[in-house]
Amino acid sequence: MPAITIFHNPACGTSRNTLALLRHAGLEPEVVEYLKTPPSKERLRELVAALGIPARGLLREKGTPYAELGLADAKWSDEQLLDFIVAHPILMNRPVVVTPLGTRLCRPSEQVLEILPVGPLAPFTKSDGEQVFDSGKRRG
Fold first, then answer.
1. Where would I find the H helices in 27-135?
2. Bridge partners, residue 103, by sequence
3. 2-12 pLDDT, tens per residue?
């Protein structure tokens, strides 16, 4: 089975749906509950590079100390923003999934479909009742 990792927050519905989609695909990922086991700054650098986004793109505002820390200010460098995420892992947006086909911030959860190393999936029903249909189109 290909190595797949999900940076997961079990309290997040989108993260739970993404994990369920992975399992629906017959995949059992390494589940990293990043609030319990935060990624290192080096790992965060790797994720940002693989995502092809600036560090700011990995930040979550809602339910975090984003505003209190003044992170909306453009003065913060990527390195400084990564330091904030290391100090406050709740600032990391989720879920982030890494597969052999790429890395994705899976918001919405069906973003994971593009990087699944398997063929088309049967329809999947998210926890809110919304159906997800897989076109079978994959990255790569």
1. 41-51, 78-87
2. 98
3. 699 999 999 99
Has 106 been annotated as catalytic?
A: no
Where do the domains of the chain lie, and which CATH numbers do they carry?
5-132 (3.40.30.10)
pTM over 0.90: yes
The total of other beta-carbon atoms located within 10 Å of residue 114's CB is 17
Q: Is 110 exposed, middle or buried (0-12, 13-18, 19+ CB in 10 A)?
A: middle
Contacts of 107 (CB under 8 A, 6+ apart): 14, 93, 95
Of the listed 4, 6, 12, 48, which one is catalytic?
Answer: 12
In angstroms, the Cα distances linking 92 to 42, 62, 107, 138 are 14, 11, 13, 25
How far is the C-alpha of 20 from the C-alpha of 140, rounded, in Å? 23
